[in-house]
Amino acid sequence: MDRGLTMGGDLQADRLNRLQAYLRRKKIDALLVSQPQNRRYLSGYTAPDHGIQETSGFLLIPCEGQPYLLTDSRFTLQAEDEAPLYRVELYAKGLINLLERLQKKIGFRTLAFESDYFLHSAFIRLAGFCAGNDLALHPVSGLIEQMRVIKDEYELRLLRQSTALNEKVFQSVHRTIEPGMTEREIALAIDLTMREMGAEGPSFDTIVAFGTNAARPHAVPTDRELQAGDLVMIDMGLVFRGYCSDMTRTFVFGKPNQTYIDRHRLVRRAMLAGIGAIRAGVTGAAVDRAARQVLADGGYGNAFGHGLGHGVGIAVHEEPRLSPRWRKQLHAGMVVTVEPGLYLADWGGIRLENMVVVTEEGCEVLNRDTTGLDL
User: Fold this and answer.
1) Closest residue by Cα to residue 123 from 137, 103, 109, 107
2) DSSP code of residue 306
3) How far apart, in whole angstroms, are the C-alpha atoms of residue 212 and residue 13?
4) % of the chain with per-residue pLDDT over 90
5) Which residues are CB-contacts of 259 (< 8 A; sequence separation ≥ 6)?
6) What gap in Å lies between CA 191 and CA 170, rounded to an integer?
7) What is the pTM of this model?
């Protein structure tokens, strides 16, 4: 249930309390959080990193008591405004110098760090600090990501709003598409409209691909001009109040021929098969298999190379996965994409993608837009 949680109050405290309880159970005195989405999830601090080599800060979370947000003078005001539960400390002389000071104040003897998001050179410095102060250093992987995988009602509300806004942007730009426009022009129009309508920005690089360019699942928009009869694939998503959306639509500009119609209908059936297989307790591999079998039975099994879907939340790609290798079970409250496709180098590609919330009995489809879905 919702319990009236808000991002600035009880929800932040709830997440922090759960993490600190975990640290106490594992006998970890403090955790250093460096991954940007994890920082935002735990504190509300939104500043991005400009690459892993240029961080906008760390969270230092002891197993009990006051948590800290460590940053530099560029982000002081933002950190104090966005993370009221955290004490902001500046590392004017570097992170290690500040950690030495805080270690004396907090008294932690074991320090954990996120091994999946830490440069080797930074690890060497951190390890040296720990060795020089007789501290135990513990790598952790996927700790906060596992907290993020089940969405609460606050997050589900934002994911629904992000999806609805993404569709509104798509529909607005879709109405303006005309012959002679380039893939790049349409992609730029999408990104601009996202911001005009209230999004923080795209959740990934917008994909617009015409004709044979759509045979590349992650096509980069080019100066190719739209011609009547061209196949058009648009894969887009945005960030709204920290939460991502992701949707793909493929259609023909003009009247589709029978080959396109047959292939499109096959992908749509695969999409519906995947959605129909989702419920709490099934594995990601089983859902992937349900959709993949439809494409295989239609003669296009080898034309679908990627997994059926992925988790979406504060990051656009997160756990769980719908793929042949994901043997873990789905649980109610997970949010995933369902995006089957087929890709033929000499013809093009078709991908159709919606987002769904896993429930005990099935799933809730978040998307309402039906542009080009059913032919």
Assistant:
1) 137
2) S
3) 50
4) 94
5) none
6) 10
7) 0.94
